[in-house]
Amino acid sequence: MLNPVNDGKFRARLRSGDSTIGIFAGLGSPLAAEVAAASGVDWVLVDCEHGAAGDDVVSPTVIATAAYGVPTLVRVESAERIRIGRALDAGAAGVMVPRSENVDDVLNAIRHFDYPPVGDRGVATYNRAAQWGMDPDALTGERQAAAIIQIETRGALDAVDDIAAIPGVDLLFVGPLDLSFSLGIPRQFDHPDFTSALDKVVAASARAGVPAGILAGNIETAQRYRAIGFTFIALSSDSVLLAQSIQSSLTEIRKNTP
């Protein structure tokens, strides 16, 4: 049965190498996420690690963005089984896992995406992922949701080739701030060590045949990242874009006020 919320097309699109642009939804507002979806983004990511969202926000956001054919992704607070499972049960088209340090961390996280005997995801049908029991076939076959692993620590960067090669990993995502701090060069995004790290992630992704993604703070940075091989670009967050728009408008108005 076709699931109108998560039919696996987004995961397939990632693996195809198609370029996508989305935003982080940090305000914890399904309406703000809906505005982003209506504006034409390819995906919206509910940020439960650093944003205001909790589990209660995921479900209504999935519905709000699906009305525009836009998938909702979720960045969980941690790689715990229950955190990943709840996001998947709510209908997330993908889950981003933060703070991996090594291959074992990623292997443990990937297990939470699949039902037994492949993984250890809790089995239930009374959720959106199984269309409230009307799609029991959702419990079998290849999983539909994408597993997104963040490369934001020195340990993960050192092991990036091995992480990229793990079966079931669908995307490597660089957290620029965390990675720059981990490398001892906070916010120095033009530092040779940082740019070398980005090249290393892109190269590992290419060798493994999985895409690479990154968070970009502005249009110019997004274009630069795309040029070096990142195909999954987060163009800032809803809160930052809102603040920048308001500030820019106020500055322009006040500049011309007598």
Salient structural properties:
258 residues, 11 helices, eight-stranded parallel β-barrel, globular, TIM Barrel
Structural class by secondary-structure content: alpha/beta
Q: Which series of helices and strands comes N to C?
A: HEHEHEHEHEHHEHHEHEH
End-to-end CA span: 63 Å
Number of domains: 1
CATH class reads: Alpha Beta
Tally of alpha and pi helices: 11
Description:
Helices cover 42% and strands 16% of the residues. β3 (72-75), α4 (81-89) and β4 (94-97) form a beta-alpha-beta unit. The protein has a single domain (9-255), classed as Phosphoenolpyruvate-binding domains (TIM Barrel, Alpha-Beta Barrel), CATH 3.20.20. It has an 8-stranded parallel beta barrel with strand order 1-2-3-4-5-6-7-8, surrounded by 8 helices. By secondary structure, the protein is α/β, with parallel strands linked by helices. The protein has helices at 9-16, 30-38, 55-66, 81-89, 103-111, 154-158, 160-164, 176-182, 192-208, 219-227, 238-255; strands at residues 20-25, 43-47, 72-75, 94-97, 146-151, 171-174, 212-216, 232-237.
Concise structural overview:
By secondary structure, the chain is of the alpha/beta class.
Write the layout of secondary structure elements.
Elements: H1 9-16, E1 20-25, H2 30-38, E2 43-47, H3 55-66, E3 72-75, H4 81-89, E4 94-97, H5 103-111, E5 146-151, H6 154-158, H7 160-164, E6 171-174, H8 176-182, H9 192-208, E7 212-216, H10 219-227, E8 232-237, H11 238-255
Parallel strand pairs: 1-2, 1-8, 2-3, 3-4, 4-5, 5-6, 6-7, 7-8
Helix pairs in contact: 2-3
